[in-house]
Batch of 2 targets.
Target 1
Amino acid sequence: MSKYSEISGYLESQVDIKPEIAIILGSGLGRLADYVEDAKIISYRSIHEKFPEFPVSTAPGHKGNFIFGRINGKNVIMMQGRFHYYEGYSMEQVTFPVRIFAKLGVSTLIVTNAAGGVNLDYEAGDIMIIKDHIRLSPNPLIGKNLDEFGVRFPDMTVVYDKGLRAMAHEIAGEMGIKVFEGVYMNLTGPSYETVSEVKMFRIMGSDAVGMSTVPEVIVARHCGIRVFGMSVITNKATSEDGELLDEQDVLVHADKAATNVMAIVSEMIRRV
Ligand code: HPA
């Protein structure tokens, strides 16, 4: 039995909820966990203690828990805190939970993140529905293909489900929440971008940059999981006049937009 089957089997023995939808919460969005009803929390640490190959999370603003429960009548598993490549985890570790989701029978993944605005129309606190991505980190599928999940060369033509994107626009419209739709680009971090790098990213077609999401999304698509993603623009990626980027500002803006993000996400969960 693979380690993924073993760990998902262990989780199934701990909770009686079979999740249909998985939600990954980004930096500063962790309090969205409060929306889960009948929450059963399983810390990454407790899994790591039984299965050492399962990682534990260290980034600021990130807790390390799986939360099983219900949102608007649907069974969900939420990741409060994710694993970043810049923390020193391997891509296999970064994407480990997604393969657990696949084993648990999850069919839809909703990812959120904090990102820097590259598109000049974006302001701190804006929300961007992810239309597509540009991967600038290593590909998480490098290495022997895991045939138990998917094919060697998975298609990436339509990564972010069109129906879910349309639904998110419709809901945001009904709720009077302004949303953009754009291209997310991932970098490894942990340093933020230079002014010149951001100019280059704009030319390349990026609307927002961040340090997560793309590896998990690629692995989810490899497993055949349908994906929806949303970024909170916490800052302009760089300012020409040399205003410096502060990690605390990122968290404050994420917190402000979190209410709107969750309003959209919870209504999407009701409708899927
Ligand atoms: N760059 C990269 N990642 C980020 C940023 C940024 O400006 N803001 C939040 N995450």
Target 2
Amino acid sequence: MRLKNVPGSREAIAESDFVVHEPEKIKGSWKALFDNQNPLHIEIGMGKGKFIYEMARRNPEINYIGIEKYSSVLLRAVQKMEEEPLVNLKFIRMDAEDITDVFAENEVDKIYLNFSDPWPKDRHAKRRLPSKEFLARYDQLLVKDGFLEFKTDNRGLFDFAVEQLPEAGWRAEKITYDLHHDEEMVRGNVMTEYEEKFSSMGNPICKYIIFR
Ligand code: SAM
């Protein structure tokens, strides 16, 4: 995502009640933060939050956390929450590299990755959110029977993600290379901002659902 620095975004994020500040302190207590026993689903690299906001709106019995590295992007999600707040959605501004500092073992019921940055150079492969290095981190926080869902229009990144699975000890429950024409997998699909943009250009969307 090309980023414009939005003046004041850092301050606005730092002051927002929709953002969890010092999330390491909540590690192991996310249910208490939401004040219920509902499952916890997270999206890593949520961008402006279109997907996770809609998921939270449709599923009030699930708690959602959106994670985004940049304040200037996260700001848009915070502004949406200011207009129409949802009690089951919170945001964290952080680099997902440190995600195991924030969630305890078995604390997360589902992980979403949507249109993750491709990091095309081989030497940056470890930074890709569906890499085996990141899968090892997700392993540490996802419940035993938990699933991870990943969507992208980037075929190179998707092939890489699929190749990582055996080495990382994960298995595919379902895979499609054309989500919008897959009658079963597209049911209930919530489009992300990038998904709307790239599918309107005619790009097929790849998706997998994986588990350990
Ligand atoms: N998921 C959104 C969508 O589908 O419309 C946004 C996709 S955008 C290409 C990728 C987003 O992931 C960017 O906003 C970027 O800042 C964020 N991101 C990339 N690496 C990240 C990381 N390590 N931790 C947190 N966010 C990250």
